């Protein structure tokens, strides 16, 4: 009964600490007031402050450096990645469905984003994407997998948007997919030439300023990933 009464209080103190950070316009890496100062400012006990700070540290909102103090965290998407990974792995009865949900969200995100960049990508940016595809092809020719190049392609594709959240979200969903597939022992696509062709199709459509074609090529790419994940979960190919 006591724990139930303390949970809302801890949540309230967390919100107050967050509000303090916002009110004082503290940025990542800036030191927070000491525990004693927080106790006085919030009118709570040392233990309550510590519990709230621990909870905020789990969210990457604050960073506790033992022996040095507490600082504003980076507010990264690490908690989201950890939560989505656990959510997918916890669905023991439906591996395919759990992974499909992650892929579908990423697919919707990228199909929408590619419409934004299709008409604005410069020739230099398209050349860079083509260069990544060429490196994929070279890696595939020597039977080497190229997940890092695949990730580089998708992050480079939307760099011109100038939206810092986009690469973070893409990286988050990418990391979840790799963690889940790794935990399940699923292998990479056995036909790298197919992956290369799908990425080249995306670049070809973009060079032609074919927005609908680029969106279709992206959809085909994701359908292939979903199909492969489904095969792996059933122990096929």
Task: Give the helices and strands, then pairings.
Blueprint lengths: L1 H22 L11 H8 L3 H13 L3 E4 L3 E4 L5 H12 L5 H24 L4 H19 L5 H11 L7 H19 L8 H16 L3 H23 L4
Antiparallel strand pairs: 1-2
Helix pairs in contact: 1-3, 2-3, 4-5, 4-8, 5-8, 5-10, 6-7, 6-9, 9-10
Which structural category do the helix and sheet elements fall into? Answer: mainly alpha
Number of strands: 2
Overall pLDDT confidence: 87
* Low confidence ranges: 1-5
Report on this model:
With 237 residues, this protein is mainly α. The chain contains ten helices and two strands, in the order H-H-H-E-E-H-H-H-H-H-H-H. It has helices spanning 2-23, 35-42, 46-58, 78-89, 95-118, 123-141, 147-157, 165-183, 192-207, 211-233, and strands spanning 62-65, 69-72. Strands 1-2 form a two-stranded antiparallel sheet. A hairpin with a 3-residue loop joins strand 1 and strand 2 (69-72). It is elongated.
Give a quick precis of the structure.
This protein is mostly helical. It has helices spanning 2-23, 35-42, 46-58, 78-89, 95-118, 123-141, 147-157, 165-183, 192-207, 211-233; strands at residues 62-65, 69-72. The longest helix has 24 residues, at 95-118.
Question: Key terms for this structure?
Answer:
two-stranded antiparallel sheet; 237 residues; disordered N terminus; mainly alpha; 70% helix
